[in-house]
Design brief:
Blueprint (H helix, E strand, L loop, with lengths): L1 E4 L2 E4 L7 H54 L3 E7 L2 E2 L5 E2 L4 E7 L5 E9 L2 E7 L5 E3 L8 E9 L1 E7 L9 E10 L2 E10 L4
Parallel strand pairs: 9-10
Antiparallel strand pairs: 1-2, 3-4, 3-6, 5-11, 6-7, 7-8, 8-10, 11-12, 12-13
């Protein structure tokens, strides 16, 4: 390209990048970005895992609090089951799927606080009949009591006592929660005030 300035003809070169120069810059950027991207992806994965851990911990603490609140005011444990097996006369029970606490209402009538684990959910219901089970599908039948989910992602509920559950003055409760390969456990000891 020729530019005219007055009577002088000055030859001006058009500036730009060649294809080779652009490819070299892209290659260098790619080499630098690989470790940076690995750093960010690793931190994102760790943050996501910690977030799930915190969520599970919170869910477990909510479940423990609900059980402890009812257990403290109860007269003790009436029933502990693992499937069809009655563990009420034992001191340790792993993978419990039903716990019934006996309480009394304001008029002096017996009430039963029922906790059941089904489909990785912890359910709670209150009934005047300890033999009732919690309705989990919305079609309440005669042998069922309405209930609500108080925690999800429940993997295992373990219970321990110094003597048989029905005679114990208190129990140790452990709830293990799991979600997407992340596991958390929460535990508490509770003593029955009205035993």
């Amino acid at each position: 390209m020729i530019a005219r300035v007055g009577d002088l003809n000055i030859k001006v070169k058009k500036k730009g990048f060649t294809l080779i120069e652009v490819l070299i810059v892209i290659s260098i950027l790619g080499i630098v970005m690989i470790p940076l991207s690995n750093f960010f992806f690793t931190n994102y994965k760790a943050l996501n895992e910690v977030s799930k851990q915190v969520d599970l911990q919170s869910e477990g603490e909510k479940a423990i609090k609900k059980i402890v609140d009812f257990a403290i005011g109860s007269k003790g444990i009436l029933e502990v089951k693992k499937g069809a097996e009655d563990l009420s006369r034992k001191t340790n029970g792993g993978n419990i799927d039903r716990i019934v606490f006996k309480t009394v209402d304001d008029s002096g009538s017996d009430l039963y606080e029922i906790f059941e684990v089904a489909d990785n959910k912890l359910w709670h219901g209150t009934s005047g009949d300890s033999n009732k089970i919690i309705d989990k599908d919305g079609s309440l039948s005669a042998n069922e009591v309405s209930g609500m989910v108080i925690a999800e992602n429940i993997q295992v509920v373990n219970l321990g006592a110094s003597e048989s559950f029905i005679n114990a003055d208190g129990v140790k409760l452990i709830i293990v929660l799991s979600k997407d390969k992340v596991t958390s456990s929460v535990e508490s000891e509770v003593y029955f005030r009205n035993k």
